[in-house]
Structure formats: structure tokens, C-alpha cells
Amino acid sequence: ExxxxxxxxxxxxxxxxxxxxxxxxxxxxxxxVAVMLASRFAVKNNVKVVLxxxxxxxxxxxxxxxxxxxxxxxxxxxxxxxxxxWPSKLGNCGLSRCSGLNDADIESLPCKNPCKSxxxxxxxxxxxxxxxxxxxxxxxxxxxxxINGSTECSSLPKDPxxxxxxxxxxxxxxxAHHNAKLAxxxxxxxxxxxxxxxCGINGRTYTSECAAHADMxxxxxxxxxxSIGLITNTKSRQCSNVKCxxxxxxxxxxxxPPGACCPLCGGSLRLLYSRxxxxxxxxxxxxxxxxxxxxxxxxxxxxxxxxxxxxxxxGYVTVETDIxxxxxxNEGYPSSLQLEACIREAEKIAGLVNMKSPRIVSEVSLSSLxxxxxxxxxxxxxxxxxxxxxxxxxxxxATFQYxxxxx
Length: 407
Hints:
This protein is of the alpha+beta class. Helices cover 30% and strands 18% of the residues. Among the domains are: 6-102; 115-188, Wheat Germ Agglutinin (Isolectin 2), domain 1; 266-375, Alpha-Beta Plaits, CATH 3.30.70. It has twelve helices and 18 strands. Strands 15-16-14-17 form a four-stranded antiparallel beta sheet. A three-stranded parallel beta sheet has the order 1-2-3, covered by helices on one side. Helix 2 crosses helix 3 and helix 2 (24-45) packs parallel to helix 12 (388-406). The longest helix is centred in the N-terminal third of the chain and has 22 residues, at 24-45. The radius of gyration is 23 Å and the shape is globular. Residues 135-190 form the Kazal-like domain. The chain crosses the membrane at residues 386-406.
């Protein structure tokens, strides 16, 4: 593009390249070294290096880290497709547009009440209906529903909702007819706190612990979301102002979810899914019954595979675009036996997904799952490595600076 310079596109970190690196730190190092070599080549040969967005979620993360470190040192490097969004207020319009989104689909603010900006037809009432769609074909990904005031609610399917006064209704239609305020979808829960805001592991603030659990989300810490952790398996410096809950067992198996601040005890999985498979299902359904192919329906499908009544499934789509799932005990103070049972259930589900079990592929909501990775570890031992990723990146950056000045 510039006189005397040749444009060279470097595809960093394909799935084949990174398949041998199971440790996230190893992936970071491999990608950063690749970028260092490409940058060195660019300077010596008077070319420009262009980083392309990778196809696999682990590689996207590596590319984001590499880009942010190397951008400080390499003037000739640019990103044709910006790296994925970090958990911050910074948007990523380049990657979003390449994914098929337009400006109207992108909003950098926290999720708000969709009914404030939505007008239902005359005689109908708007009720929030938050959902996470897993395909761009699922358009519009509606976050509300309009309830007809003249509809006979008893003829509608049973889909329990709970109002702010802890009263349960068989469906949102009855809730609207009683002019009640929606607290959360699902039956009214009892083994949770009804009052006090909490921050979920997905970075969303909920009105109560019950509202988070009803959304199939574990609580990260009490109060509104104020800090977001790095994408590591440990508590990071960004979360220094967060007070975490006491763990039922300090040496339990668990993990700090991606982007969260506090560790959780329980079986943890990272799931990859095929968007093409979801697109095929949506095409076959012809936009009818599309609610059966969203994140909630997928988590509900996984929950049906759990055979221990004391274990529950919770999860969310991470910034790396895969699905993080944790199988926890629903008891307030679970025993070591109950914790162990939930961990075994997580490992069982991972085996079912990886073996393409008929129990998985025969369910529409689960048929898109392609790979499951068990990620839980001993929390007590992992806490000794809190700053190792940052230390390694610092050493690599310092080494690169030294090599760069010696060129």
C-alpha cells in the first residue's frame, strides 16, 4: 500500500499449530514468538505485517494478547481485523462487522431493560425476555415479548415466572394480567437470597442471587459488577477490590471462570460448538421454535444429562466465543462427597460430547457441540500461580526489546 513496501499477510496461530499446546500460557508464548519473528522479518525486508483474525477461540485470545503487546514495539504492524473484545468498555467494530453484524447490532453499554426502547402493539404489554442467541441467523435475537391483554392465559404453555413479591405465575401472560413486576423467569427459588444485587460470572449485574441462579449463572461476588478479571484461571490484580465468598472447601477442585474474579468449586468445562450446525437447525425450523436453540436451551439440555439431584448446570458464552459450563452443588454448604459427585458429572458430560454420544447428538439443543475440555483444577495449588502469566509476558516483552535494539 505504501511506495517501496510489500504487503505480507501472516496468519498467526491456526488450530493445527496450537493443537499441541493444551496450556493457555503455552498458547500465549507460541503466538507471541510467532509475531516477534514476523515483525523481525518485516523490518529486515521492508514489508508490512498484517494480522488476520483466527478461526478458533483459543487462537483469537492468543492473537489479542500478541497484538496488544507487539503494537507497542512494531510500527509496521497493523491489524486488518481487530482482535476480539476484551472485557471492557472498548468496542470491536472491525471483528463484529466481519462476523455479519452492523452498527445497530453493537452496543458497548451494559444490557438494559429492552422494554424501555420497545413499543408493543396497542393492547399488548412488553415483558423482558433476555436470551443469548448462538447464531447470526437467529435474527432478530429478541430480548422481550409482547403479551396480548385479551389472550386467555390458561391456554398458553406453562412457562413459570416469578415476580418481585416472590409470587409465581404459570406464564408471563398471567404476570402481565396481574400487572406484576417480573423478577426472573423460572419458578420462584428458595435456596438463594432474594435481596441484594450480585455480579454474575458473566459480568452482568443481577437484582438478587435468585435472579442469577434462575438465569443459570453462578454468582461471582456480592454487589453490582465493578471489576472484571483477566482471562486466566486465577484471581488477578484487577479484582483487588472484590471480596469473594468463602469456599466450602479451600482445596476443592474448581476454577476462576474466564473474566470473573472469584474461584468456584465444581466441575468445569469449556465447550466448542458448530455455528453451521445451529444454522442448519434454524433453517430446518424456518424460524419456528427457535427458542430451542439458544444458550439457555443448551444448558437445560446439559442439565438433563446430570443424574445427581444435588448438582446444577450453569454457564455463559465467554469473550473467547466458546461456552464455559460449571456443574456445582445446589446446597449452601455441600459436603466433599457432593462436590466430588458434581465433578464426576462434568467429566461424564465431557466424555459424552467428545464421543459424539447419541444422548448428545439426538438433542437439537446439544447437537452443535463439537468438543469439551475439562478445565477444573485444585484451587489451592493454582492460587500460587496468580501472576505467572503476567511475569512470562513481561520477560518476553523485555527479551524482544533487547533483540530489537540489537538488530
